[in-house]
């Protein structure tokens, strides 16, 4: 489970870095990238929850 938290931390750091430093200037592009990145983050959260529940079941 520790590796999952490290990967999640890296994803969060990438999201913050993009929003602070790497924005393209076009609002539509930035919004699209933020939506896609947030979807990936929420998907990874659900994957972590599923894997935790699977471990608890064993």
Describe the structure.
With about 60 residues, the protein is an all-alpha fold. Helix content is about 85%, strand content about 0%. It has one domain (about 1-55). The chain is built from two helices and no strands. α1 (about 1-20) packs antiparallel against α2 (about 25-55). Keywords: Membrane, Transmembrane, Transmembrane helix.
Structural domains: how many:
1
Relative strand content: under 5%
How confident overall, as mean pLDDT? 86
How many angstroms does the end-to-end distance come to?
15 Å
Q: What structural category characterises the helix and strand content?
A: mainly alpha
Low-confidence stretches: none
Main β sheet profile = none
Overall geometric form: elongated
Number of helices: 2
Radius of gyration, in angstroms, nearest whole number: 14 Å
What is the helix fraction of residues, given as a range?
over 70%
Number of strands: 0
Q: Could you spell the SSE succession in H and E letters?
A: HH
Q: Which characteristics define this entry?
A:
mainly alpha; 0% strand; single chain; elongated; 58 residues
């Amino acid at each position: 489970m520790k590796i999952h938290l490290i990967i999640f931390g890296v994803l969060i750091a990438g999201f913050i870095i993009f929003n602070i430093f790497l924005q393209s200037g076009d609002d539509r592009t930035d919004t699209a990238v933020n939506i896609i990145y947030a979807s990936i983050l929420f998907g990874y959260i659900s994957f972590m929850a599923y894997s935790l529940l699977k471990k608890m079941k064993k």
